């Protein structure tokens, strides 16, 4: 990785940390905090949230025909999400162990906390759980795929790819044959030496 690319990668990490601090300030302003992965609201906020919850009958009555008609199609994705979740878990349990790659912890990617918000009715809570699961599975699979790519093919693409994973920026430049031959083992060893997830 060139000096400038490394500098930019460090800047991305710095900006992510700054964003995390700003999110924490916003949490405080909204009256909640996170302690041991559990949300705690300031006194009186949960009661206010319950007051703002829309009843199921009103929620359904205000839903458009388009929303009601497409809901079964939207929820049908649960089948491929569950299948890819299970297959990815099996894949890394076998392959990552075989190659000494630290496994990805699913709980770092799939969180079901939004459904507990008191201002959501049952359907809204179910919708939030569904989206949490779907996006969490995608995030989980992406990290498993990123570690696989780092182990087998840590080479950047010739064309620009949209939304590349965080590991991608450190990969070898496209066409750097000498770097590939010289550094592939180093990429693998760096991956193996990452802190293993206790799963």
- What is the SS-derived class? mainly alpha
Helix content: 55-70%
> Quick one: overall form?
globular
Quaternary state of the chains: single chain
Order of helices and strands: HEEHHHHHH
Report the mean per-residue pLDDT as an integer: 89
Enumerate the strands of the largest sheet in spatial order, edge to edge or round the barrel. Answer: 1-2
* Number of contiguous helices: 7
Can you put this structure into words, describing what you see?
The protein has 199 residues and is mainly α. The protein has helices spanning 3-30, 45-52, 56-62, 65-76, 78-99, 122-152, 177-192, and strands at residues 32-35, 38-41. Helix content is 62%, strand content 4%. The protein has a two-stranded antiparallel sheet with strand order 1-2. Strand 1 and strand 2 form a beta hairpin. Helix 5 packs parallel to helix 6 (122-152) and helix 6 (122-152) crosses helix 7.
Short key terms for the protein model shown above:
two-stranded antiparallel ribbon, 199 residues, 2 strands, mainly alpha, 7 helices, 62% helix
Per-chain topology:
Layout: H1 3-30, E1 32-35, E2 38-41, H2 45-52, H3 56-62, H4 65-76, H5 78-99, H6 122-152, H7 177-192
Antiparallel strand pairs: 1-2
Helix pairs in contact: 5-6, 6-7
């Amino acid at each position: 990785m060139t000096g400038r690319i490394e500098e930019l990668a460090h800047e991305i990490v710095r900006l992510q940390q700054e964003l995390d601090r700003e999110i924490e300030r916003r949490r405080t302003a909204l009256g909640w905090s996170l302690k041991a992965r559990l949300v705690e609201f300031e006194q009186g906020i949960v009661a206010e949230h319950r007051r703002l919850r829309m009843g199921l009958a009103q929620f359904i009555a205000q839903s458009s025909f388009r929303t009601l008609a497409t809901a079964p199609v939207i929820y049908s994705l649960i089948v491929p999400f569950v299948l890819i979740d299970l297959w990815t878990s099996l894949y890394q349990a076998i392959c990552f162990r075989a190659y000494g790659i630290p496994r990805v912890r699913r709980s770092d990617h799939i969180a079901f906390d939004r459904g507990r918000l008191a201002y959501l009715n049952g359907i809204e809570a179910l919708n939030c759980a569904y989206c949490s699961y779907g996006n969490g599975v995608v995030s989980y699979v992406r990290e498993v795929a990123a570690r696989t790519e780092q182990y087998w093919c840590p080479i950047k693409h010739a064309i620009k790819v949209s939304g590349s994973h965080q590991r991608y920026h450190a990969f070898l430049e496209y066409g750097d044959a000498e770097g590939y031959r010289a550094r592939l083992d180093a990429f693998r060893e760096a991956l193996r030496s990452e802190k293993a997830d206790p799963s």
